[in-house]
Design goal:
There is one protein chain. With 387 residues, the chain is α+β, with helices and mostly antiparallel strands. Helix content is 22%, strand content 29%. The strands form 6 sheets. A 6-stranded antiparallel β-sheet has the order 8-7-12-4-15-16, with no helix packed on it. Strands 1, 5, 10, 11 and 18 form a 5-stranded antiparallel β-sheet that branches. Strands 20-19-21-22-23 form a 5-stranded parallel β-sheet, with helices on both faces. The longest helix is centred in the C-terminal third of the chain and has 19 residues. The radius of gyration is 21 Å and the shape is globular. The model has no long low-confidence stretch (mean pLDDT 96).
Length: 387
């Protein structure tokens, strides 16, 4: 059966990076090994300077078949072009898509994307992600066309700069599921869900992660202290739903709206005026997320918010709001206003004290799950979507 359509097989959000003293790079190669969930005959790559403050010049991009996490089969290295050129200039606030590149992709294989930044480049557009399939490398020098990265000039990174989405020209049956959220979704569970789908023979869906740590539905931080906390939902969601072949979105978002406000006497950037009501959260999800997703023709699934007991800003009123918001999501799914619910809270909470994580499921900060809990989140989602 011939390939017939483009489907995103990998994707992440773009955010403002953590603005430290050094925000420029020059003469470096970034290499990102990407798990490919579909067979395909062509690829195209999207690069984003969405949160950049000046134009960026990407000197060269290649794709190649991986032979290890870091190294590639040199005979497969293929240059990616942009309107016929090997380079691309991307204005601040803009995104750019490459030309179509003939490249055979096999489901279950790994394709590495190498990006060479030859000139001074403002590194303000990227995202921090983790998980068993989320690895990156940064090497000094131009190694975009090299099979092996020099071990003495290379280090690991979980910051994914500029590379935003990879589309594959593939079979009609294939489609994409978008997982939208904050740091919990920026961490491991979407990777585990990708692995579990492949291992369970579910080979017609890709998991596209659109998640940024610290983000909120209703607010954003416009200060360097919290630069990496990204854009608010109203700005993010329409941009991040631009996914070829997508037909479903799973939204797990809102905990930062609840836990962040502490009052200006504690933190000038976290006033009590930012504290949402139950109605604020509900209207935000309905108007900013569900309504837009429906216009795109997507099925909409909601994911409940996880326990927060013991988190440094925990208070009973915050947890009461979380529980009330979760109950609204359950009701929306029950009466059919959304297409379904992934009850992450029920899966991970302590059955004796549901304010807390179950034993072994707390990472230690009482907000983020442990690695085994992320695996449980993936299993919980898989059960919903494989029915």
């Amino acid at each position: 059966m011939a390939d017939t359509k483009w489907v995103s097989c990998w994707g992440n959000a773009t955010s403002i990076i953590d603005q430290k003293e050094c925000v420029y790079s020059k003469d470096i190669t970034l290499r990102y090994p990407i798990f490919m969930c579909f067979d395909g005959s062509k690829v195209r790559l999207r690069f984003s300077n969405l949160t950049g403050v000046e134009p960026v010049h990407i000197t060269k991009v290649t794709v190649a078949s991986s032979v290890s996490d870091r190294d590639v089969d040199e005979s497969t290295i293929t240059t990616v072009t942009f309107a016929g050129n090997e380079y691309i200039d991307i204005e601040a606030g803009q995104e750019a898509t490459s030309d179509e590149v003939a490249f055979d992709v096999k489901a279950g294989s790994t394709m590495s994307v190498s990006i060479y930044l030859g000139t001074y480049t403002n590194m303000n557009s990227g995202v921090l992600i983790t998980g068993p399939l989320s690895k990156g490398f940064c090497a000094y020098g131009n190694h975009a066309s090299a099979g092996v990265l020099p071990i003495d000039k290379t280090r690991n990174t979980n910051w994914f700069y500029f590379l935003n989405t990879i589309d594959v020209f593939t079979k009609e049956k294939n489609h994409a599921l978008i997982c939208y959220g904050d740091s919990i979704t920026a961490q491991s569970w979407p990777d585990y869900l990708t692995k579990m789908c492949y291992e369970n023979g579910i080979n017609d869906v890709s998991i596209i992660r659109r998640a940024v740590s610290g983000t909120r539905i209703l607010r954003q931080y416009d200060c360097t202290t919290y630069a990496a906390y990204g854009l608010k939902g109203e700005t993010r969601f329409p941009i991040e739903m631009n996914v070829a072949g997508a037909d479903t979105v799973l939204i797990q978002h809102g905990i930062n709206d609840i836990i962040h406000p502490v009052g200006e006497d504690v933190n000038v950037f976290r006033p009590w005026s930012d504290m949402p009501s139950y109605e604020d959260l509900v209207e935000g999800v309905k108007n900013l997320y569900i309504e837009h997703a429906r216009k795109l023709g997507y099925k909409v699934y909601l994911g409940t918010l996880l326990p927060i007991y013991g988190w440094r800003t925990y208070a009973d009123f915050r947890d009461e709001l979380r529980v009330q918001f979760n109950d609204w999501m359950r009701d929306e799914a029950l009466i059919g206003r959304v297409d379904g619910l992934v009850d992450f809270d029920k899966a991970l909470c302590d059955k004796e004290d549901p304010r807390k994580f179950a034993p072994g499921f707390d990472s230690g900060d009482h907000l983020h799950p442990s690695e085994s809990a992320y695996e449980e989140m993936a299993r919980t989602a898989l059960e919903v979507f494989s029915v």
